[in-house]
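Supplementary Methods S3. Input chains for the assembly prediction are listed below.
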Amino acid sequence: MKPIAEEPNRPVTEREADSALVDRVWQGDFAALGMLYDQYSGLVYSIALKALRSVAEAEDLTQEVFMILARSHTYDPQRGALAKYLTTLTRSRAIDRLRARATQQKYLTQWNQLQMSTEAASPMNDAVQQERRTVVRAALSKLSDRQREVLELSYYEGQSQSDIAKRLNVPLGTVKSWARRGLLQLKSQLLGQLEDDSVL
Amino acid sequence: MSEPLDSETLKELAAGYVLGDLSSEEAEQFHQLVTQVPALSIEVAALQAALHMMPYGLAEQRPNAELRSRTITAIQSAAIRATEEGAVPSGPIKPQIFRKQRWVLGGIAAGVLMVLGIGVLQQPVKYAQQPTETAQVEQVWAGFRQLLEDHHSAIDNPEGPADFMTWQPERVLTQLKDFQTTEAALPMLPESQAKLLGASDCQFGKTSGLRLSFQMKDHPDKAQIVSAYQLDLEGDQFPQFVSSTITLRQSDGTSIVLWREESYLYALVAELPSADLDRLAHSVGQI
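Predicted structure tokens for the full assembly:
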């Protein structure tokens, strides 16, 4: 079996370019910071908005993530691409915020709200990211609604499977099965699609 | 094992590992199989990569254009503040907006304890270049924050909590390249209570060490991860302790227990009640 590459359609030179930009930011170059913001703020903000469901909180988290990138010196290009670092960091911080929210009831109320209206989205300029989005959306669309829902609750909101089972009012074993089979199917879909597109 | 597992079962185990939902029995089975079935590691890597791709499936959203200038201005201001305060970043610098964590034992309380000399923290010599008690408390607190952040990044890592997987303590010594220690000095939790998942090198400023990741055995439906740290105090950023342990609890439910043994600082961090984590810490051989 051929594993999915860590960043399938992002050449090493681009990771090096990002790393060089981060180095410049750490030296106090705020033009470089602006370039990184332009490149990745959409990805960071999308994850934050998906998890937190609040424009204000998503903006606050986006600012926090770039603050960490600029000030903490914790990004290590040897351990992965910048997109992966920012994705992981954003998700981790979003889950921290969700855990800190006052009451479960408030959270459930937010969950039941319809998809919130947000500012008109502008397309990502980066063709690579756009292509990746297309591929992943197609793969996710092959999952059942329940599989996708369980994976999203687990991934973006850090919900335990027992919590998800209570929320969806289904047995824990069912949630576990949806999550596992959903992930296996997602991998299978991505593997085939990405190989077809020769982006591995 | 009485009979070979079929590939579907292996895939389910791999998916469960990546999702962190293996039961104790499945975790045991997984760790036995992972060295025997090379395809299992490949499957895990592929599943981790697939999970990591999920954010690209989100609807495209752009933050308000005004946020760009607000963010850059905030970072510039933080940099200027740090320069004015003469701070030299040796590790993560936390701007003001991150200081939202509220502790059961707050920073002021810790400072008072230090000043009165009855507390758990004491470091009269180590920070001679830091002239004030406040600076000392800040530095100590930064150490706690680093541990908590490392723990949270480990348990939220879609690729698993450890740099490499092992359930054998002796393999920790051969796999970790950056930190020299002995098997006897490792912060091993009792097998009856927790299962070793893996280990990672750690670096907090000048302080190097390791993190062992354990899964509690009494949480079958959700991987309850405990991070056990062993840090070398040679590059000392941590205090001398008067008491045997320090136990703290964060408002989000994360607890931390620290203790010293010879030249090492040990810590356990987990989303467990502080009393439970304290009991767990006392079951580690080094206390």
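The first helix of chain A runs from residue 12 to 26. Chain A has nine helices and no strands.
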